[in-house]
């Protein structure tokens, strides 16, 4: 039975997309949207723009585009802003990133040049391999958080935005475990005031966004909005949050291949993964602390998909290795090598080898777009806290306390589309319908 429609506020007015980190990913995203607006390109890779959603029975032949099924913000209503430690405009940053061809960027020079980064909150203890001049100065982190909130409100007014979202596209911060200052809102705010070293810049951005009523998505693997204090604040303020770590290259392939191996009950003895990339992300990840954050999200995927506790003879002794190597000449064109040692009937060994020559920012850009539009939709639907239905986009999906994350990309996609069906009062698709034959 279909449920009653959920009340969704209309997507009227401008939607501001605020981005900490105006580097390769964010400028590729912004330039892409501006190119699509002008009819210069297609939004390939974006579910919100190109994917359909099946409604009802297969025989009903109802498969509208997602953007025609739920009220998403129109691309022409998007406006962009952000923060960065470097003073380059989005146009200059895009040129430096070297992802998009200069010929295309020249056609987009006017809108990209108009985007100038606000001064960033930055702490080199959390990102050790880069530094820049465009940073905020204040006596403590609480003052910096207030400065971010002022930035947010100023951007809202100057651009006449009716709604805002924030998507973290900044560098990967060093690995940290949750600390006492992360446990309650009161402890976190005291930590901001006392400059507690356990509070990362991304957490200050998340706090400022939530306090400002702005949905927050974390595209990096580091500890950010996924701490008790900020999750409680998001519930109190009725703000959606999600994350973490955009699922783009090698891990995307793992969540495609691993479910298929498990579905056929094929064993896996080892999975060796190495990455070569030369962009700013690669430079940052060359630091062991930042790599540790990335390693944790990359390693967690297979264990959750294979469930070795349920299938010990197939997966208990899986040897999983992940390496990331910074190689400057490669630029944004990341190369992911995977060697997978599997075994089948009677234990006979086999191998799978994958060489994915991907473009990191090209794969990430449509994720930023979809998250911005879906997080805005979630807020207009009255949803708050962790948006697990957006796990499809992340290496390490945030979940409610006590729940393990779902990494199977096909289950994630089913959950995403069923959430959209629920929003519009349509039957959820479970594939449990029975067919009878004479």
Question: How would you describe this protein?
Answer:
The protein has helices at residues 24-37, 47-50, 66-69, 90-97, 102-107, 109-113, 141-158, 185-193, 201-211, 228-236, 250-263, 280-285, 288-306, 312-315, 360-380, 409-423; strands spanning 14-20, 78-84, 118-119, 161-168, 216-218, 240-243, 267-277, 319-326, 335-343, 349-357, 385-386. By secondary structure, the chain is α/β, with parallel strands linked by helices. The protein has two domains: 14-246 and 361-423, Rossmann fold; 250-357, Dihydrodipicolinate Reductase, domain 2, CATH 3.30.360. The protein has a seven-stranded parallel beta sheet with strand order 3-2-1-4-5-6-11, sandwiched between helices. It has a four-stranded mixed beta sheet with strand order 8-7-9-10. α10 (228-236) links the parallel β5 and β6 (240-243). α1 packs across α15 (360-380). The longest helix has 21 residues, at 360-380. The model has no long low-confidence stretch (mean pLDDT 93).
